[in-house]
Amino acid sequence: MLVLIAGLLLFLGVHSTRVFADGWRTLQLQRLGLGRWKLLYTAVSLAGFALIVWGFGLARADPVVLWSPPRWTHHLAALLVLLAFILVVAAYVPGTRIKSMVGHPMVLGVKVWAAAHLLANGTLADVLLFGSFLVWAIVTYAAARRRDRAAGARYVAAGLGRDALAVAIGVAAFGAFAAFGHRWLIGVDPFA
Predict the structure, then answer these.
(1) CA distance 102 to 111
(2) Distance (Å, whole) CA 41 – CA 43
(3) In whole angstroms, what is the distance from residue 73 CA to residue 50 CA?
(4) Distance from C-alpha of 117 to C-alpha of 159, rounded to nearest angstrom
(5) Rounded CA gap, 6 and 48, in Å?
(6) CB proximity list for 8: less than 8 A, separation 6 or greater
(7) Domain range summary for the chain, segments of one domain joined by +
(8) Whose CA, among 68, 75, 84, 109, lies 20 to 30 Å from 93?
(9) In degrees to the nearest 10, what's the CA dihedral of 124, 113, 75, 68?
């Protein structure tokens, strides 16, 4: 469990610098420059991610079961993860109404993804992993919306075609990942 916790601290820690240490982050950007900052940020993120994957695998080998969710929660989780995929894609398709409405669809997508997985899984490792991401997403989303309000930021929608594109790509990515990627990467077939 310690490997998983170390990975979560590294990965979510580096992804929280803007929320909890924005002044320090700004100083480091000035000191290192954007390129070196991104390189360091990426290296720490990848190290944290690798530890999360390794630690979660170790924890799944000897699970501590806290509860056994009913089967219907897996179906609900699948629907919520589909929504999460669409939200994440909407963050990268310029001019979606989704982004103009929610402001930060990627962070909201992480929040939905984490909550969905908490509903459908009941081990200690699941609670640590998905609970940590859920708390991170809640805090990060609130901080990003506060920054937007303070800066008067507005996200302009370019038309329904952008939303249709985000939904189509999100649905296709979800379908491919659910059918092939989840089993290959995680070792669990979400539709079994």
Answers:
(1) 13
(2) 6
(3) 28
(4) 32
(5) 7
(6) 48, 52, 128, 129, 132
(7) 1-62, 65-192
(8) 75
(9) 10
Which three-class secondary structure string do you get for the chain? CHHHHHHHHHHHHHCCHHHHCHHHHHHHHHHHCHHHHHHHHHHHHHHHHHHHHHHHHHHHHCCCECCCCCCHHHHHHHHHHHHHHHHHHHCCCCCCHHHHHHCCHHHHHHHHHHHHHHHHCCEHHHHHHHHHHHHHHHHHHHHHHHHHHHHCCCCCCCCHHHHHHHHHHHHHHHHHHHHHHHHHHHCCCCCC
- Please state the length of the chain: 192
- pLDDT one-digit tens code per residue, 160-189: 999 999 999 999 999 999 988 888 877 777
Q: What pTM was estimated for this model as a whole?
A: 0.91
> What pLDDT, in 10s, does the model give residues 72-120?
999 999 999 999 999 999 999 999 999 999 999 999 999 999 999 999 9
Question: Could you tell me the two tokens for 191?
Answer: 């539709």
Take residue 159 and report the two structure tokens written for it: 């038309």
- The token pair at 16 is 């929280």
Task: Report residue 18 as tokens.
Answer: 């803007």
